[in-house]
Prior knowledge:
Chain A is mostly helical. In chain A, about 70% of the residues lie in helices and about 0% in strands. Chain A has helices at about 10-40, 55-60, 65-95, 100-115, 115-125, 135-140, 155-180, 185-195, 200-210, 210-225, 230-235, 245-255, 260-290. Chain A is globular, with a radius of gyration of 24 Å. The two termini of chain A are about 40 Å apart. Helix content of chain B is about 45%, strand content about 15%. In chain B, α9 (about 205-215) crosses α10 and α17 runs antiparallel to α18 (about 420-440). In chain B, β1, α2 and β2 form a beta-alpha-beta unit. Chain B is globular, with a radius of gyration of 25 Å. At the A-B interface, α12 of A face α3 and α17 of B.
Amino acid sequence: MKYSFSWYKKKDPWIFLLPTLLGLFVFRLGPIIGSFLLSFTDWDIIKKPNFIGLENYIELFNNPSFIEVLSNTLLFAFMYVIGVTVIGLFLAVLLNRNFKGISFFRSAFYTPVVTSAVAVGIIWSWILSPNYGVLNLMLLKLGINPPYWLGDTSIALFTVASVQVWKMAGYYMIVFLAGLQGIPRSLLEAAHIDGASPRRSFFTITLPLLSPTTFFVVSIAIIDSFKNFELIYAMTKGGPQNATNTLVYDVFLNAFVYYRMGYASTVAYILLALVAGFSLLNFTLKKHWVNYQY
Amino acid sequence: MKKEYKYLTLILIALLLSVSFISASGTQEEQSGETVLQYWSWDPEAKESNEALILEFEAANPGITVELTTLEPKEYWTKIRIMANQKKLPDVFNLSSGYLEEWASNDLLLNLDSYIENDLDQSKYYMSLFDAGKDTAGKGSYFAAPYALVTTNLFYNMDAFDEAGIAYPDKNWTWDDFRNAAIALTKDKNNDGVIDQWGYWFYGRYAHVESWVYSNNGHLLDRKNMSFDPDAQAMEALRFLTDLVLVDKAAPPKKEMSAFRQQDVFPQAAAAMFVDGSWNIANNRTVAGDNFRWGIAEIPVGPSGDGTITYGWPDYVALSPTGENSDAAWKFAKFVSGEGLSLDMYLAGKIPSYRSLTESEEFLEKDMQPYNKEVLIDQAGETMRTSFTLGWGEWRGYGAAETLGFNGVIDGIIDGEFSFEDGMEKADKNINTVLDRLYR
C-alpha cells in the first residue's frame, strides 16, 4: 500500500515547533545571552546599564572572598557527587530484591527528594542544634563532645552538603535501581555457579555493567551539585563567615539583595563555565570507564 | 492545510481585538475625566484594610480612583525597581528608610517640600520622623511621608527579674546596671553545665548592635567622607557588647543559638533580655503568650550618651516624580500616611506618625503585654539616628546576607573566630571597599 505525502510541506513541522522554540528563545536563550551582555555593565535595575568592559571580571578575581566562594562551591560539589553516588548505589543494591515491605522502604528513601528544601533545612537545623538537638544529645549520651554543626566554620559546609546528600540520595537510588534491574540475571547466576562470592560478583560484574547508569548519575549529580541555593538559604545563609557561601548563593545575593545585576551575571558566567568544564571532562573520560556492552 | 492557517489567522485576530478592547477600556476611563492613581503596597496582610481605606478616600474625593497593587515584600523591591527603570513608577508607593537615599539621589522621588510646608498640619504629626527622612535622603529636602516608625527597645522578662530580685530597667539604667543584671540573670537552673537562661542575647544584627552605639552617642560612619570609621564611643559600645559574651559570659556566642529563629530566643525564655525592633512586640505575644510577664524599656544610656537619641527608622509613602497627577497623589499620600489609617492596620509595636493614633488610649493596649507601651511614645519624639547608606544591605549584612558584612564580623568576634581587633580591621577593609565603590 502506498501512502501519499502530497499534503506535506517542509515548513509544516515548524508550526508545531514554534511554541517550544519561542519558549526556548524567550525564557532560556534570551536571558543567557542577556546576562552575558549584562556582565559587562554596572546595571542595578534602577538606572540604565553602563558598559564598563571587564571591570566586573577584574573585581571578581581580585575579590578575596570570591576565591573562598569558589573553593566552597567545588568542595560542596565534590562531597555531594561522591555522597549521592555512593549512598544512592548502596541504597539501590539494598533494595534491589523482593521482600515484604520493599515498596515502603523505596518510598521512604525517596520522600526527602520531594520534600521542600526549606522544610528540610529547618528540620535539620533543629536536629543539629547545639544544646537542644537530637543528634548532639545522642552524642553526649555516648560521651562524645559534639561540635557546632552549623556554627563552626570548619564543618558547616560539610554539614550542609551532608544534608543535601541525605535529601537527594533517594533520587539517585531510583536511577541505580533501574540500572540494576537491566543487568541480566543469567550473568550473576553463572558467576554464582562458578563460585564467585556476592562481593566479587558486585565488583566484577554488577559495577562494570552499571557504568552507563553511573555515568548518567555522575553527570546529573555534577550539575545538581551547583544547585544548592535553597538549603543554604534555609540553614546558614552563607555563613558562618562565608563558610557556606557558594557561587549560586553569591549570584542570588548580588542580584536580588545588593541589586548588582552586572556583577551577579559575571558570577553566573563563572558558574556556567564550571558546570560546562566538569561536564566536558566527564564526557571526555567516559570512554575510559563506561562500558555499554554485556 | 489552508484550513489550519485560516483558523490560526482567526485566533490571532481575536487576540488582537481583545487586547485593543482592554486598552481602549483603559483610555475611556481616563477620557471620562477621572483621575486614576496607582498605589503599590508591600503589605499583603493589610490588603483588606487598604481596600477599605481606598473606598473611604474615593468617597471623600469624587473624581479620584485609586488602584491598589499589593506585593509580597520579597518581590516588591525587584518589581518596583523595574518600574523605576521603565519610568513607570506608581503614583504612590511604599518606601523603606534603607532605600531612601538611593532613590532620592537617582531622582526617583517627588520633592515634597512645598506640600509639607503648605499643605500639612504639622502639629498632627511627629515631625521628627519627617526630619529623619530628610536626613536619610541627604539632599536637604523631604522626599517621603512617614506613616509608621519602628524603634529599638530592650525587652525584659519581668518574672526572671523578680526571681533574681532585680529592679526593672527604666530610663535611668546605665550600662553597668544592665551588665550586672545580665550576669545575675545568666543561670544553669539544673546544674548540668548548660546555661538554661542567658542574661542577654544578641548577635551582629543591625538592630542588636547600632542601638548600643547610638545610646552612647557614637557613630559607625564618617558621614563627611562617607567611610566606615567608628568613633571612640562606637568602639566602646562594640567592645562592651562583645565582652558580654567573651568576658562576662552573660550572653551566648551566636553559634550556640543556631536552632532558634533569632526573634524567638527571648519569648522562649532562653534569654532574659533582648534588644531589637519594636515590631517584636507582635512576635513576643504570639510565641510567649502568657508564659511569663515581660516589658519594654529604652536602651540603657551609655557613658557618653544623654538619652535623647533613638535608633529608629520610619516606613514611608513616596510619590513618583513623573506622575501626571501629583496633587491628587499627594492628597492620597497624606491620607494613607495619617488620617486614613487606623490602629488595626499597624503591626503591634509599629508607631503611627499621626499623633492622634499614637497618643490614643487604644494604642497603649493596656490589657496586653507589654503594659508600658508609653515608652514607644517617648521615643517617637526623640532624635533618630541610623546607619543607612547606599549599599547598606551589602556592607551591613542584611536579610539573606546577614552572615556577611559587619553582621558577620561581630558574629565572628563573639564566636571566637578572630579577635576584636582583627574583626574591626576586617570590617574597615571590607566595608570601605563597598562604600568607595558607591560614593567615589
